[in-house]
Write a structure and sequence with these properties.
Order of helices and strands of chain A: EHEHEHEHEHEHEHEHHHHH
Largest sheet of chain A: 8 strands, mixed
CATH class of the largest domain in chain A: Alpha Beta
Distance between the termini of chain A: 31 Å
Radius of gyration of chain A: 20 Å
Oligomer: homodimer
Strand order of the largest sheet of chain A: 3-2-1-4-5-6-7-8
Chain lengths: 310, 310
């Protein structure tokens, strides 16, 4: 645990991972975010440096954990020129947690190795509370020997390794993560349709959810999102715009594989529509705003308050 | 239990309900099916009459349980003229279990009452093994006083009433049943897309299903249909053509309610496509034949053997 950890991207997930690692005894050396205020706040909280250059993160850290928004941000922090995590990166280990295109993970591994560093993808299938508690479900892609080197640290984030799964070489974990989110988003969009129609038919939604829970309509998202859909409580855990991005990644993989996936397409359409309607920052449960009568962009009451327990 | 029970429609569900009722001590007086051989076989097994006229079922029974295919069959057995269950129906109780349009249940209640009889809808959200074991999940629609009259018998089919739910007036249970199947079918179609894409990407499907089961992608259909999709074991529990029919009912309800449900639409499209491709008699898990590379109508190996335990 003498390793010094740097964190790049201190949104809800990254910040909680940093808190968790500090709590279990790691040294968080520095944090970085394009939103400099967020980095400063967290640095103050953790007593570390708020780096203003990516190269400074690399300089101060043995292991750098990255949790950025999308492919473009990921390519930016591992840029081949200009300010980059790759500067002076010899011997460093990069652990990349963002849900991005699998091909970008493959490319980052190449760039890291060319710089004398190592990289792993650690795709997360859990949410902010799990990050803080160190109970993330982590799917790992990369070289097995690099995984072994990172295992102790990753275990501290994944319930002492109980929720830590090695999936395959670079890109494979990201593929699986995209699939998890694709299926989750489909189930969420489908649930919103079922509850929306039940509401329009004047059925008691409590009974409807009870019946769903005891039949073939049951799903994890019924438990996590059903009530929120009914109550219009769309506090953000996993935003609609992230859902659109992840369904989009899976959809591109399906196109490359020449597979026709109409439900994935329809779901991507719905989440993209939310973004267009200005509802992208609602939780994914906010998709019910599209399927309940009288709801939607123009209506109020779709709450996007600060997160609560889920 | 001195009531005499007649059964109309002795497919997989109806036949097992008859067996169950006989086992717990009811008198099964007569059975009827348009496929006369099926009725004869079951009548022989149960030691009752294989009626060749619907009116004969009504004559021999206090309670008539109907489990027919679709709206048309339902309207046929309750025809206003010609051979009909309504002939001499005074005092009879009809319990209608088929998944059909809610409006037809409302109409059948009217017709039954005009003939001096009573009717209930008892929509089932379980499969053939549960019918035999008397552990069906039953959603009841109709008049509360008629429900009370039928409660003892219905309890014998629904785990001593533990799985017996009164939903509302005529048509309401059928609406909810259509919603259950709509959401179940969406989740099934979505799962088939996830597993099909995982397969095309060369991922280990055992790991994929394990990850799905522990994340937001989890669902009841992952448990019931996941392995069957991977193994192409599409022995029929709930056929693709029934799935198309039920998603179609829900879709019409949504159109009447002026709701746009793109996932329900896409799912209906997939199950309708199966029927068109001649795959309608496969289990609903057979939808994976549309999403796995190299599978489909022209390929062999999609088994539709006789049912096994599920």
């Amino acid at each position: 645990m003498s390793q010094k950890i740097g964190i790049v991207g201190v949104g809800r997930m990254g910040a909680n991972m940093a808190r968790r690692l500090k709590e279990v005894g790691y040294t968080v050396s520095a944090v970085y975010d394009v939103r400099t205020a967020a980095a400063k706040d967290l640095a103050k909280e953790l007593g570390c440096e708020a780096a203003t250059k990516l190269a400074r993160i690399t300089e101060l850290s043995d292991v750098v954990i990255t949790v950025v928004t999308d492919d473009k941000a990921m390519e930016g922090i591992f840029a081949k020129k200009g300010d980059s995590l790759l500067t002076g990166a010899t011997g460093r280990l990069f652990i990349n947690c963002a849900t991005i295109s699998p091909a970008v993970h493959v490319d980052v591994e190449k760039r890291a190795e060319a710089a004398g560093a190592r990289s792993l993808e650690a795709c997360m299938a859990s949410s902010i509370n799990q990050a803080l508690q160190g109970t993330l479900y982590l799917m790992i892609g990369g070289r097995p020997e690099v995984f072994n080197r990172a295992k102790e640290l990753l275990s501290k984030l994944s319930k002492d390794g109980e929720l830590l799964k090695y999936i395959g070489t670079a890109g494979k974990a990201a593929q699986l993560k995209a699939l998890v989110n694709m299926v989750m988003n489909i189930n969420t969009a489908g649930l919103a349709e079922g509850l929306g129609l039940a509401d329009a038919l004047g059925l008691d939604l409590k009974i409807v959810m009870d019946v769903f829970s005891q039949t073939g309509a049951n799903s994890r998202v019924l438990v996590t999102d059903g009530e929120d859909m009914v109550n219009r409580d769309h506090s953000c855990f996993f935003s609609a715009s992230h859902a659109a991005k992840d369904s989009g990644i899976a959809l591109r993989l399906s196109q490359q594989a020449k597979l026709n996936l109409p439900l994935a397409k329809a779901t991507y359409g719905q989440y993209s529509k939310m973004t267009k309607l200005g509802l992208g920052e609602l939780d994914k449960s906010g998709i019910a705003e599209l399927t309940f009568k009288g709801r939607g962009a123009k209506k109020k009451a779709a709450k996007a308050k600060k997160p609560k327990k889920k």
